[in-house]
Amino acid sequence: MPMPRGARLDAPGTLHHVMVRGIEGKSIVTDDEDRSFFVLRMGEVASATGTSIHAWALMNNHAHILLKSGAVGLSTFMRKLLTGYATWYNRRHKRHGHLFQNRYKSIVCEEEPYFLRLVSYIHLNPLRAGLVDSLEELESYPWSGHAMVMNRIQHEWLDRNYVLGYFGDRELSARQAYLEFVASESGRGRQPELTGGGLIRSIGGWSELKSLRKRQQKQFSDERILGSGEFVKEVLDEAEDTVKDRLPAIAVEEEARERLQRMCEDSGVNLQALQGGSRKRECSELRKRLALEYILELGMTYAGAARLLGISAAAVNQIVKRRGM
Description:
Helix content is 54%, strand content 9%. By secondary structure, the protein is an alpha+beta fold.
C-alpha cells in the first residue's frame, strides 16, 4: 500500500492530529470485529513505538487520532498501523487493492490553545455523526477514546492521565471537569480550523488577515501546522532547510488536489470535464466554490488555482473580485 510521500514535520514529541480515510470514501470497517482489530492494532503499535495517544475516534469510513510521536516518528507509526490493518482486513474480507487513501492527513498542532479542543472535537465525532444518541451513551461507546478517559473502558496505551491532568490532580474531580468541558463543546458542531492549519484559520479569519495586510504586518503560516504565527515560524525554523523550503508549497498543492477530487466525487461532477473547461452549470458552480477556497483559505496564487480548475488566472481573479474582496 502506498504510504505518505514528501516532507513531514516529524520530530519526536510533536503533537499531531491525524486523519485517515477510506479510498474513494469507502468504509474502512464493516463490523465490530474489524473495529476491535483496528483498536488492538493501534494500541500495539503505539506501545511498540513509544507513541502517546491522547484521543481517537473510529468512524465507518475514516478515523481521527491525536498523538505525540515517539522516537521513530509519526510516519513509522502510521505505516505499521495502516499496513498491518489493511493486510488483515483484505485477508478477512477476501479483497484486494488499497483500503486507505494514499495519504493520511496530519496537522502539527500548538498544544496550549488547541489540545483540549482537539480532544473533545475528536471524542465527540460519534455523537455528531449520530452513531450514539447522547453524551451518556458516548461514555460507554467502545470506538472512541472518550470512554477510556472516563474509565469505563481500560486500555493502557491511551494517556488518559495526561488529558485529565489539565483538569486537576484528583481523579474524580478531574474526570467530572473533563466531562463538563466535553459537554460544553458538544454544541460547537464542525470545526474546520481543527482539521487544517493555514494562515486564515490561524489568525481568526479573512477579515483579520486583511487587517494585518493593511497594517503591513506579516504572519507565518503553513497548511500542515495549526497554531499562531510565532509557533509556525518556530516549527519551520526547527525543520531542516529542505523541509522548510518544500513543505508549504507541497502541502497546499496536495490539499488543493484532495479537495478537488473529494468535492467532485461528492457533487457527482466529472473531474476531467471540470479541468477540461466544461461550461456545464455544475462544473462552473464547483469551480467558483473551489477558487474561493483556494485563494481565501489556502492562500494559493491565481495561476496555481487556475491550473487545477481548468480556467485562466484572470477568470479566478474575476471570481474572487465578485466575492467582494
